[in-house]
Structure prediction request, 176 residues.
Amino acid sequence: MKNFTSLNHIERNKLITIVLKDDYEVAGFVLDHSENWILIQYNPADYILDGFVIIKTSEIKEMYRSEDEEFTESVIRLKNIPIGIDKKIPLNNAEEIITALNELYGIFIFSDEPNESVFAGRLIAFEEDEIVYQFISTQAQWENEETLFPLEDITYIEFNSDYLLSLKLASEKLYN
Prediction:
C-alpha cells in the first residue's frame, strides 16, 4: 500500500482512497486539487463511477493507494468508462465552488460530516459567511423555506451523481 503525505505526490487520473478525520472513506480518481480542496471522480462501490466529490484538504486524515485501488482502476479502465470532467471547477474556496456547481448543475450535496448527514439542495444566495440554500427532499420536492449554513463548516461537496440528476429531473418533470 502506498500512503500519500501530500497532494503533490498524487498522480492525476489515478484511483485513491481518502480517509477523512471522522474515518469516513471516499474513493475516486484524482482530477484536480488546490491547497484547500481536492476534486475526485467518485467510486462509491466496486467498479462504478458516479459523479464527483470535492473534499476540503484540512479534513483529510490519510490518502492511500493499495492493490485494491489498482485492481478496481484496471477494471474501470477495461469498461472504457470516461475518467475526467468536461467543466472546470474552481477549487479556491467554498463560495466559488458552490457558485460554479449551482450554475453548471443546479443541484449539489454538501456536508460538514458526510458520515453523519448531508444536505441536498441548490444555492439561493450568500449572506456574509453563510450559504443560503433550498433543500430538496428525497421525493424531489423543493422545500418552501430557505436554510442557512456556515461556509467554513462545509468539508464535503458532491455533484453530478445519478441520485442528484434523478432528483433534479423528477423535480422538473413531475412537479412542473
The longest strand covers residues 117-127.
